[in-house]
Amino acid sequence: MKIIDRETGKRNDDEGKREKSDLKKSDPIERLVEKGLEADEEFSPMDPPTAYDPNYAVVDAGTEHMPDSLISFKEDHKEVVIELDKFEAAMLEFNKGRYQMTKEINDTFGAFFLFFDETILPHNREEERHLFPVLKERLMESGEHSKEPIPKTAVDLMEDDHVKFIQLATLTLNLLGLAARLRDQNSRALTVDLAYHNGIELIELMRLHIFREDNTLFPLAHKLLSVEEFKEMGTKLNPTA
Prior knowledge:
Strand content: under 5%
Number of strands: 0
Shape: elongated
Structural class: mainly alpha
Oligomer: single chain
Helix content: 55-70%
CATH topology of the domain at 70-237: Four Helix Bundle (Hemerythrin (Met), subunit A)
């Protein structure tokens, strides 16, 4: 099972290790910065520093004066991280207890999937509708894209993550529900173990995604988008304000 390492942002499996050099070439947002860099040199969202590395200021765009719409997205992320921590703690306790479902664990799982449906999905849709389209245009104009026949930007990669979130969350929830109905203990054990690993992968993918948006995508949007574009975005995000 491929699980993402929180320290490196890489999948922690033998296949992933063997394909490390290929991933650097094929997945631009996973590549490490290997060249010598000046202190004030900026990183591209298509070629970021090592995941979770706090020593890099990925894009210096005056983030202390970041527009309200981006601040709002970042505040949403803080709430998501809190819920991810709760979900992870329950998942680890579930695993430690050999997959015995207690009331506390069941309640935490239920609360997380409700939060996913009512908060995470709407947040992602707001990014996709109001931020990503205009940011993708600016990234293409500024040359911040891959060199493929159909160029991809960091926005495409973030949108792909949003789809993966839905897939992993749905799979985890459905497997947990299926396991509870299985009478054969071996089948139940295999099913619930698969649910656990998919749940852990969802947690780590979401954490990495949030890190990249907060430290690369949002500062770059601040740099590339105009004041007027942010005002329009704010109006759409808060139509009654």
